[in-house]
Amino acid sequence: QSVLTQPPSASGTPGQRVTISCSGSKSNIVSNTVNWYQHLPGTAPKLLIYSNNQRPSGVPARFSGSISGTSASLAISGLQSEDEADYYCAAWDNRLDGFVFGTGTKVSVL
Amino acid sequence: EVQVVESGGGLVQPGGSLRLSCAASGFTLTSYWVTWVRQAPGKGLEWVANINQDGSQRYYVDSVKGRFTISRDNAKNSVFLQMHSLSAEDTAVYYCARGIASSSSLWGQGTQVTVSS
Q: Residue A19 burial (CB < 10 Å; 0-12/13-18/19+)?
C-alpha cells in the first residue's frame, strides 16, 4: 500500500478539465517536491510535471501541477482523447528513505 | 539517438538470479542519477532502486534490500540491477530511467522479468 493515495479513476469529455489528487504527508509531499507521470502500460512512462509545477520541454501547457499542504494535484485542461492513460504522482519520502509512487489514477475520455 | 535500453530480462525459477542492464546511447550516463522502476501485472509503478553519478549513494525499496544490488560501469555507460532470491512477487516489467524527477528525465521501454517454475 503506497503512502501516496490517488483516486482510482477520473473521467471527462473532450475539452473538459480533469483534476487528480494525491494525498500524502509531512515526510513526502510537505518535505520534498512532487512529480507526475503519464503511463500507458507496456510503454515508457513519461514525466509530465517535476518540482511540483514545472513542465519538461515538450509537455503541453494544459498539464499543470500544484501543492496545498499535504496534497498535490494534477490538472488536465482541454482534455483530449490521447490523454487516456494512467497517471501517477511521486515524491521522495524521508521516513522511508526512498522514492514513492502514488496508487495511480486511470483517466478515461468519454 | 538519445535513449536508454534495458536488457537481461527473462524467465527464471523461484530462488534464481538475473542481472538487468541499462545501456545509454547518445549521451553520457555518468552525469545522471539512474533509477529502476517496476510494474507488476495489474499493479502500479513501484520504485526499486537508484544510484548517484559516482555510485557512492544507493537506495532500495525495503522489499528488495539484501537481494538486489544496483551498480554502474561508467566506462560502459551502463547501469545494472543484480537480482537474487527471486520470487513470484518480483515478476514485473522493469524500467530504467535517468533523471527520474528532472527536466532531463528519460525512460526506457522496459524489460520483462518473469519468476515461475
A: middle
